[in-house]
Design brief:
The complex is a heterodimer of chains A (about 80) and B (about 270). Chain A has about 80 residues and is an all-alpha fold. Chain A has one domain. Helices cover about 65% and strands about 0% of the residues of chain A. Chain A contains four helices and no strands. Chain A starts with a helix and ends with a helix. Chain B has about 270 residues and is mainly alpha-helical. Chain B has two domains: about 35 residues; about 220 residues, no CATH class. Helices cover about 60% and strands about 5% of the residues of chain B. In chain B, strand 2 and strand 3 form a beta hairpin. The radius of gyration of chain B is 22 Å and the shape is flat. The chains are: A mainly alpha (about 80), B mainly alpha (about 270). At the A-B interface, helix 1, helix 2 and helix 4 of A face helix 4, helix 5 and strand 2 of B.
Amino acid sequence: MMLGEITPSLIAFILGIIFGTQLNYKLTKGMIILLISFSIVASLLFGVFTFTYSIYGGYIAPGIGFSMPLITATIGIIIGKLLKR
Amino acid sequence: MEELKGKRGIIALIALIIITIGLLSSLEKLTGRVNPGISEVYNALAYLVAPNNLATWVYDWRGFDTLIETAVIYVGGLVSALVIGRGVVQMKKCKQESPVTSKPLEFRVESLTVILEYLGIPAAILLISYGIMIVTGSSTSGGGGFQCGVIMTSAYLLAAILYGKNNPIKFGKRFIIGIGAIGLGGYALLGLPGYLATGYWQYNIGADVWSLVPSILHTIFGDPFRLSLILKEGVFYSTPGIVPLINIAEAFNVIGAIGLIYFAFLYGWSDEGE
């Protein structure tokens, strides 16, 4: 595994926290579950190119693109919102 | 010009001088090293940076043209504000004159359908995530900064349209200005490592296509985004170097530029606190 597969997810997480602090909306449990579920679907839809051998697309499930930065960004936004409470 | 006096003015002046010297001396040093069209050196080294020539071309030039595009947006925002008048943007200098009054934008939040009421916010939040994904994907796709900025501000506008003044994505004035300033400053500062190491402003010391920098710098700026490309012919390694960082700075810059326009036109502007 190369660093290039991990760094974008970390950066997405940090950016998510930054923008999550600007949310002015009460996140319920249902909303959090909805966001994470949609993020997983979106990650499959917008997954990275398979030639880069991502963690999921290359090693675990070859042929399937899976975008980790999208999920970590959503998690970051949720955490950022919780931090700003 | 009052805003440029004091510490901020001195910092701005010093930064401007450093950037100007860097750019001009870089241009001077480029003499004889750039051929018309795509150079032979470029063709010989391009595959070391990216898996294909298109991506290589995007890596090298995308960021620079986007910087100018952002400048166009800033000018567009300024001109729009000037044309529409002081009713929207009211600066200190114009306070003695009575501002042009205009009816505030009318938000009719109560007319939201059930679907928009419950799915509007998740859609806006997911748009932000999508924007972040686009900008962090620049290690495999080249550009992304401008697109990210446009997507993020679209999320802001979507939430503003749905929820009016109670916008759940509360990008305040200070936040938008801060993000824009960090983006613009970051973009300019990312030129410094390359300039100090090689004499070329914004030389990509992570990718180091001309083999000019010490290996330690190449490692520091190149390894965080290095990917392996496994082919039948063997395993190849490529890194976009500082391009992802430039793209993040560019995204911040675009969020600042477009966000300010939306903010000023939707909620009005004054020099007082938020």
